Structure prediction request, 293 residues.
Amino acid sequence: MAGAATKQNHDYHLVAPSPWPFVGAMSAFVMAIGAVMWMKAMPLFGAKIGWFIFAAGFVGVLFTMYAWWTDVVREAQHEGHHTPVVQMHHRYGMILFIASEVMFFVAWFWAYFEVALYPNHEDMFMRIAHTGGVWPPKGIQTFDPWHLPLLNTMVLLLSGTTVTWAHHAMLHNDREGVRAGLWCTVALGALFTLLQVYEYTHAYFAFSGNIYGATFYMATGFHGFHVLVGTIFLAICLARVYAGHFTAKQHLGFEFAAWYWHFVDVVWLFLFACIYVWGYGGKIAAVAAGAAH
Prediction:
């Protein structure tokens, strides 16, 4: 009778009490306090240990992520809680997360185009003083999009095809194909990051001191951070493939990693077209107009 009363007769997962939301929140709080103390050089008991407090909070956040996601993997792989209904809701959650990331990048594109399309607006006298009334601003030497940025574009697009290859291999239960596709994708993601670092070290403009550098580095830098996160995401999926965690019917973690990677690809295409190509073309047009006068 007691067994019948406790038997689950629905497809939903009622999550057991977990300490990780509280531990994660406290770790993030400690990390934030440490970051403020570190950046402001605020002493505590006579010593400047803000960096230590920040590091302690950061380690706590990383541990929370590891422990919490380990619980989620166990719930899916060993306890059977991820029913088709639960998986559907997880997909809704991932879709909403990617949608929020899209709006995050919309803000940076908005900032870039607002100043790029109106560099000499009569109401923006401070802007004219900093841009010279043209875009890119006077004195800014932009990147040639048809050299390193184009190579990075090819690298990222190729990585999109290899992760798709891995996903199709997963659907057909081809474990060797999954491993090969994921290895290629992780390697290409790491190569993209290295090329981006090389590009930054050879830039003719800095982040501070000009509005072009601020908008350029915020947009491309946050994209680079997302590439790094996506590469780690896929590397963890690769480790889980070797551990035998995924099946052709249940591989939600890998599917979400592939979605995230394709999102990163699409954002880069917009960055390449708008900031590198269009911005460089704007420079050419400005030079031509100046020569005509």
